[in-house]
Write a structure and sequence with these properties.
There is one protein chain. With 716 residues, the protein is of the alpha/beta class. 38% of the residues lie in helices and 19% in strands. It contains 24 helices and 21 strands. Strands 11-12-10-13-14-9-15 form a seven-stranded parallel β-sheet, sandwiched between helices. The chain has a six-stranded parallel β-sheet with strand order 16-21-20-17-19-18, sandwiched between helices. The protein has a five-stranded mixed barrel with strand order 2-3-4-6-5. It is globular. The two termini are 35 Å apart.
Length: 716
């Protein structure tokens, strides 16, 4: 049964902390119970009665209906079968207990069917009753197979056993000097207080201490990773003066933003050191990260090395290749008659290239003829060899597995420098926790000439005329000479669509229809609201040449409207595209909507993003869309996104198949703890990298870094 909660050891149980605490004198609000969720309530029996009912030709049956109350609301418990009279004797009016089950609805009233329960009344003296009533009851994250009070009983047995042995074998990861300096409880006291608190102050003491455990051990792991990186040898790549970089800068038709200059300086300083750079470059959609990355690649080429950019999709790799060669002009034509004096070759390498083109690209890499290569996971294959790989740029870090990034980094004669880019702005605390082994650079300033984007929610079910107006707006933009995107969650070619085979989500069930699909929407638009416009489709399962052809035509203005999946989410740059309509916008995450929106407003004309949804106004999905429409600040949106999703799928460990280790710490709220833990961890690792003087910390680290996690951190 413990498998349902991932509880396998005594340690797992001790660190399975109560979700909240009830007081015996305090009744849980029944009015706020969520439908279809497994809950535990503390309430009092108001009445109980046994009713007889007809079983439809199979005789008569009996059911027990019990009404419980918490003073603010009432709820019914129902029991069937032979045990109804046993439960009737137990559940007498006035008795108080904990009741657990899945909240259902019957005759428009909330009910628990066959709940598990534990009565709390006790025949004790006044003082004991008073103590009993004021005691804080831990309510644990539970499931149908393992109730909260069963967990509580198990934890009590463990606590009593450990106390009897003087807490032998319990390793406290916090060094005594740190614990005392920060005024934190020792580990036995913290565990006692979190599982058996006498007061609310006990709970706060325990939480503060246990947050430190999680933050500190994780930060030590990251600090050791950073320290190990500083011990690796790397070739210092100092850009030559009057080389490719200077020639490129001289031909730029615009001035770099202050942010781009500052970040470039940080990167060039790192490239000049003799240990590998590990830097995260994050920034707003359209803040000019590609320009910063290109200048870093040119600096490495100037210094005699090669640079590789790894993109998550063929569309994005082709787009990067096209935009970089256009920006470089004759500087990208090394080895050709039209090439400039300092020119190099910029090659593309993807899985779908023809054999001859692929052979040429591989030859250019191994001879060093190509200073820059842009590609997909095809770059990782064994047959790809470099002359002297000096820099790896990973675009959209979260789209790559750890092993893929590691394989590319392994292609250098010495470890190459690494620049990781993400267009999903990450709050500082998340960056410190997730990317704590990377130095972080932030671009939060948009280049001159970028236009504002107006965003609006279109409630298609409540106000169908709003959707009609949305298509009118698309037509108006096209009439002005601009172009538009329409984004759908699904491709929609029937059985071939893997998403169509998935079990429908709760929202699918609520709407009784699958998410809208590119192929169907494009057909309806071309025949209806957008008739007469040049409508094209783009999705991930098209042949790469077809995808590239569509993008080329759209970029050249030969198509008015592009109906696409999220294949356009990152990197696609068509300055003339000014409008975007996102269908079923509630099916996308906050960060994804922000990414998509960043595809418009890239030129001098203002951008427009319309978020179409059929979800009701009061739903969380509509609130989420309202948040996206209300701000263009990606850092603010990422904060909202994280508050909704919590840390489980943020910590990056999803890439190694490992659950988040954070149970008490919330990275969005505990900035002070994370910052202080990082400082303490860095100081300890610098003084004692092997943690020889801290065996208990080493034990905790080994527990955190099982084989999978160790590999995850090793590969960064």
């Amino acid at each position: 049964m413990a498998d349902h909660l991932d509880l396998h050891t005594v340690g797992d149980l001790l660190h399975h902390y109560p979700r909240r605490y009830a007081e015996r004198g305090e009744l849980t609000a029944l009015a706020d119970l969520p439908l279809d969720e497994h809950v535990t309530v503390v309430a009092q029996v108001a009445d109980a009665r046994v009713l007889t009912f007809n079983k439809g030709g199979r005789g008569k049956g009996q059911r027990l209906e019990v009404t419980i109350t918490d003073g603010s609301g009432r709820m019914q418990l129902v029991f069937f079968g032979r045990a109804v009279f046993f439960h009737q004797k137990e559940l007498l009016p006035g008795r108080r207990g904990m009741f657990a089950g899945k909240v259902g609805l019957f005759n428009r009233k909330l009910q628990l069917s066959h709940p598990e329960y534990k009565l709390l009344d006790a025949d004790t003296g006044d003082e004991q009753v008073k103590a009993f009533a004021s005691e804080l009851l831990p309510l644990y994250p539970a499931c149908k197979q393992l109730e909260s009070w069963t967990i509580e009983q198990s934890v009590s047995i463990v606590l009593d056993s450990l106390a009897a042995t003087g807490w032998a074998g319990l390793a406290d990861p916090l060094p005594p000097a740190l614990r005392e300096g920060r005024g934190l409880a020792d580990l036995p006291e913290a565990l006692r207080k979190v599982h058996r608190p006498r007061t609310k102050a006990d709970i706060e003491d325990a939480r503060q201490r246990l947050k430190w455990d999680e933050a500190f051990v994780l930060q030590v792991a990251l600090a050791r990773r950073r320290f190990a990186d500083t011990q690796l040898p790397a070739v210092a790549r100092r850009p030559a003066s009057d080389g490719l970089l200077d020639a490129f800068d001289a031909k730029l038709p615009f001035t770099l933003t202050d942010g781009q200059k500052k970040v470039s300086t940080e990167i060039f300083d790192d490239l000049a050191t003799e240990h590998p750079m590990h830097r995260l470059l994050q920034g707003e959609v359209g803040s000019g990260k590609t320009m910063v990355a290109l200048r870093a690649m040119l600096a490495v080429v100037d210094a005699g090395g090669q640079a590789a950019m790894l993109a998550p999709t063929e569309v994005l790799a082709q787009q990067h290749h096209r935009s970089i060669t256009e920006m470089m002009g004759e500087l990208a034509e090394g080895g050709t008659l039209g090439g400039a004096e300092h020119a190099t070759k910029v090659v593309l390498l993807t899985g779908s290239m023809g054999a001859a083109a692929r052979r040429h690209a591989l030859l250019d890499l191994v001879t060093g003829e190509a200073g820059i290569v842009i590609g997909t996971h095809a770059l990782i294959e064994d047959k790809v060899k470099f002359h002297d790989l000096g820099l790896v740029v990973v675009d959209e870090q979260h789209r790559f597995g750890v092993e893929q990034r590691d394989a590319l980094r392994g292609k250098g004669k010495q470890p190459p420098h690494l620049l990781v880019m993400t267009a999903t702005p990450i709050p500082r605390t998340v960056a410190m926790t997730v990317f704590g082994d990377l130095e972080t650079s932030v671009l939060d300033q948009l280049p001159a000439g970028r236009s504002p984007i107006a965003s609006h929610v279109v409630p298609a079910a409540d106000k169908p005329h709003f959707l009609t107006r949305a298509w009118d707006r698309v037509r108006e933009e096209v009439e002005k000479g601009h172009q538009a995107y329409v984004v759908c969650p699904r491709i929609g070619d029937g059985e071939d669509d893997p998403k169509a085979k998935k079990k429908p989500s709760a929202e699918d069930e609520a709407e009784k229809r699958p998410p809208l699909a590119v192929l169907e929407v494009a057909e309806k638009l071309a025949a209806g609201p957008l008739a007469g416009l040049r409508v094209e489709v783009l999705h991930g399962r098209m042949h790469p040449d077809d995808k590239d052809g569509v993008m080329r035509r759209f970029a050249a203005g030969e198509a008015d409207v592009l109906v696409a999946t999220t294949v356009i989410e990152v990197g696609v740059n068509v300055p003339n595209a000014t409008a975007m309509v996102i269908m079923d916008a509630d099916r996308f995450g906050v960060s994804q909507l922000h990414q998509l929106r960043g595809r418009v407003g890239r030129g001098s004309a203002p951008g427009l993003c319309l978020l179409v949804t059929e979800m009701p106004e009061a739903s969380p999905a509509r609130q989420r869309l309202g948040a996206v429409a209300s701000t263009l600040d990606g850092f603010e949106l990422s904060r909202i996104d994280l508050e909704q999703r919590r840390e489980g799928d943020v910590l990056g460990q999803a890439q190694s198949g490992v659950r988040s280790s954070l149970r008490m710490l919330t990275v969005i709220d505990d900035e002070d703890v994370i910052t202080a833990a990082r400082e303490e961890a860095t100081a300890i690792v610098l003084a004692d990298p092997e943690l020889t003087a801290h065996p208990e910390l080493r034990t905790a680290l080994d527990a955190l870094l099982d084989k999978e996690r160790e590999e995850f951190l090793e590969k960064g």
